[in-house]
Amino acid sequence: MDSSAVSWVTALFAMISALALQVEGIDTVSAIYGETITVPCNDNKQLPEGVVFVKWKYEQKDGTSQSLLTKSIVKDRADFDASPEYVGRLDIGKQNELLVSNATLQDQRRFNCMVATTSDVIEHLVNVKVYKKPSKPEITESPKYLDVGKLQMIGKCISKDGNPQGNTTWYRNGALLESDGKTVDISDTAMQAPVTGLITTTSVLRYAAQKTDVRANFTCNVQHFLDKDQESGPVTFPIYYPSEKVKIEVLTPSPIREGDSVTLKCSGDGSPPPASFTFFLKDKKENVENSNNYTIESVSRNMTGDYSCSLLNDENLKDTATITVHYLDMILTPVGSVTKEVGQSVNVTLSKASSADLAVTWKKDNVKIDAPTLQKLAYRDAGNYECEVTAAAVKGLKKTSSFQLIVEGKPHIKNLIKKLGQDGKTNTLSCIVEGSPKPTVQWNVNASTVNESPYVNGQFTHTITMIPQGNDTVYCTVSNKLGQDQYTVNVSTFHTPSSKSDESEDSRETNDQTKLIVGVVVGLIVAALVAGLIYWIYMKKSKQGSWKTGEKDRGSHEENKKLEENNHKSEA
Smaller CB count within 10 Å for the chain: N or C? Predict the structure, then answer.
């Protein structure tokens, strides 16, 4: 200050010292850390008349006062006399209120607004409180996993830089946790920063986990009067506990057939799941590390039975499963290619055995048939016979066997049919042949056309068309490796309606009919002779009786008449 100002202030204080001092009540204002503190003078009331100046000062820790600024009524600006901690942070408002920017905890003190008038000095005392909301809590130092039944630290819930400090609580899946000294233990600490004076709180939760804590969420909350509760992010933990049970599974779908591969799986209910096991097979045990599967290749029926598994290091903890291996045996006799002659027999036998009920199906040349009975073989019996045995209850369990039956026989001409063509000149000759292997056919005449029907069931028809050159004798000759047969027919250039060539019959049919007629005639002649003999005997006995009795001939006459009628009928 210059000399005039010093003299003015000196005079002013001298005047104040001569006045009576009045102190009003103490007010309290609250401020937020880092924001501007507004400290009212005279509770923001209108200043009294005759004000000379307003002076702000604060109380130091030792109880002495420290001046901050002075505002004269006759001057527009205040004169600052602040300590270093307030340099650049002070201002005075229109109502003479003190403005302190960037509030800190060091600003928590008593401020004094002194109003000097021409007749009096009034002091307004104001206590300042600075508050700060703590930071959002964060859980740190959490373990990688929790062991069941063991009291372990879940983590530290840290909330920084509050004033006053916040209150911390812990939650599991939203439910409040409270210390019980056994399964839950919570301890809280607070630390004040030496420079700022702000408080950091640390809450440690120790917890004895249970199996039900798998996927459980742990959180912490910090409560502070300045704002609503702040919640940390959740933390979860793998829960470790030993297996109490093991389980064996047969992964291969049922039913299991001979030749299948069977995979067994073993598992434990521990956490983390056990990775190594011992498998107990029919005649041995197998240790498997870092895997829970074991595969048995190409099982057979004698592998039916119980299979077990256990933990690698604890064979007392064991589980068992039963495997049933289904099988099917089939023996068909005969098999392959079978050659027989007409009239012979084939003995077909089928032996079968299975672990399930069986169904038998027969086919001949892919057509379903009943079980074959091959006695007195005919050509139609030849073909491919297939037998299929199926276990309906076991999907895919079936076997098939087959044999090829070949029926052979000497060639035989069953008939030779002769027909006159519509032009009256040509003759059609059809030779009906049977035999196996298929016979070859030869004619002794030149044919204008040759046709042959399909070879079915050992039989076919070979047909030719020819023009007779006169009265020709035509031969049909058939042969195969077993023999031959021949048939003859007469073919004439001339044709009459009554000739045998006009009838659609062959010579073998004509001979058969002739033999039949001769037999009938002979039978009638024999019957007539027998009837005549009976009549003669009867007449002789009748005459002898008449002489003995002396009766009249009336009765004998009637009998004779009847006998004559019978005789006539017999002769007829």
Answer: C
pTM above 0.70, yes or no: no
The whole-number pLDDT of residue 25 equals 63
CB atoms within 10 A of CB 245: 11
For residue range 5-64, list pLDDT tens digits in order. 434 444 444 444 434 445 556 899 999 999 999 999 977 777 778 889 999 999 998 989
Which H helix or E strand runs over 138? Answer: strand 138-140
User: How much of the chain exceeds pLDDT 90, in percent?
Assistant: 68
φ, ψ at 353 (rounded to 5°): -150, 145
DSSP state of 53: E
Length of the chain: 572
Q: Does residue 253 have a cis bond before it (omega within 30 degrees)? A: no
What 3 state SS string does 484-500 have? EEEEEEEECCCCCCCCH
CB count within 10 Å of CB 272 equals 11
Beta bridge partners, 294, equal 264
User: Residue 33 has what DSSP assignment?
Assistant: T
- Nearest in space to 292 (alpha carbons), one of 238, 256, 243, 240: 243
Q: Which of 11-20, 92-101, 389-398, 430-439 has the lowest mean pLDDT?
A: 11-20
Measured distance CA(542)–CA(544) in Å, rounded: 6
Euclidean distance between CA atoms 78 and 92, whole angstroms? 8
- Cβ contacts of 119 within 8 Å, gap of 6 or more: 19, 50
Amino acid sitting at position 497: P
Name 65's Cβ contacts closer than 8 Å, sequence gap at least 6. 57, 58, 59, 112
Q: Containing H/E element for 17?
A: helix 3-18
Separation of alpha carbons 484 and 146, rounded Å = 100
Residues 6+ apart with CB under 8 A from 291: 275, 276, 277
With contact defined as beta carbons under 8 Å apart, do 302 and 333 qualify? no
- Helix (H/G/I), strand (E/B), else coil: 131: strand
- Least confidently predicted of 24-28, 84-88, 156-160, 308-312: 24-28
The reported pLDDT for the residue numbered 22 is 55
150-163 exposure pattern, b = at least 16 Cβ within 10 A, e = fewer: eebebbbbbbbbbb
pLDDT for 568 equals 39
CB 358 within 8 A of CB 437: no
Q: Read off φ and ψ for residue 304, nearest 5 degrees.
A: -60, 135
Q: Residue 121: which of 12, 11, 6 has the closest Cα?
A: 12
Q: What distances in angstroms separate CA 291 from CA 257, 269, 312, one per listed residue?
A: 25, 15, 11
Phi-psi region of 216 (alpha: psi -120 to 50; beta: other; left: phi over 0): beta
> Tens digits of per-residue pLDDT, 222-266?
999 998 999 999 999 999 999 999 999 999 999 999 999 999 999
CA angle 68, 74, 78 (to 5 degrees): 20
